[in-house]
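re the bet — no i am not wrong, look at it urself. input seq straight from the record:
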Amino acid sequence: MKKRGKKTKKIAFWLGNGLCVLLSLAALAAVLVLTNLLTSQKEAERWQGESEMEFAQLSCCLPEDGKLTLDDIYKFRTDMQTKFHEAALDVDNDNSLFVDAWSTTGKLKVSSALGSGEAAVIAVGGQFFSFHPLRLLSGNYISEDDLMQDRVLLDPELAWLLFGGTDLQGLEMRINGYPFVVAGVIEREDDFASRKAYTSGMGLYMSYAAYAQLEETAGVSCYELVAAEPVDGFAESMVREIFPLGEGEIVANSGRFSFTGLMKVVGQFGQRSMRPLGVMYPYWENAARMIEDWSALLLLLCLAAALLPAVTVIVLLVRVLRRGRDKLTDDLLPRLKDNTQEAIRVQQRKRWEKKHGRHEK
């Protein structure tokens, strides 16, 4: 009866280890999936390409009462190039050392011949759609290099309201009574975090320059940057020194989903919800923070589940090493000693016989 109970416990112990291993691997796989969901967090990798230079991605989120103007952005660009030159990062084209984008949000009235309503606006500048490569359902992206800044991108909900379809390139609409041209229709991110974070309803993307003409109080609320990183921390140090951040917050996008980054989130448990500054995150940053929280939780689960198997492996290794040591001490070494002594006696015997001639017949 005791043997049966002991055997049952042993089976349960190994089953528990197996389940812990499976749980740990499943949690780790979930972390890997989650941390690769958001393309907006991977612009540094895309920008680097095959270059040997390392790059870092940063986001500057500004408070409601501390928004920036385009002049602030252009001055920062100039100061940043100066910093690159001081760090001996001169290249033929300074623009290859960084790429940036900026944005702000608002609400505007929109109309067409078929419908009208109020739309959520994300006004963008720089290489915004490089940082946020939303899938085009039709048409083309808008760019700060466009000759005219009157082109807009609609999401499917607004496209159906205003035109009853999504193939709309070149059609005209009005925003706050002013004429604009539809450049295309985009599909919003489909991951669970972005769907949860974006709550503004139907909307459009337009040039920041055009938006600033419609809204006199407009200001940049989010500035995104990918910059050369010759040494760790160079880009963030440069931004903190010369960017007009005010009471804003710098988010280090690069490495935020690494092991150390997620463990930092675990260490900040209970503090991340405390926001003493009036910083408003864009929806993609809220989505990234949600992914961080879930990934950190799953990573913690992964480590906790791996604890029992890890301890088991260590105990088994100690036992194997101890048995090996005992076998070496109690069996192999004495046997080796006896064999060595026997070999010495045999050699001594042969030398004696040779010396006294007993080896002759």
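see?? The chain has ten helices and ten strands. told u. also The mean pLDDT is 87. so pay up
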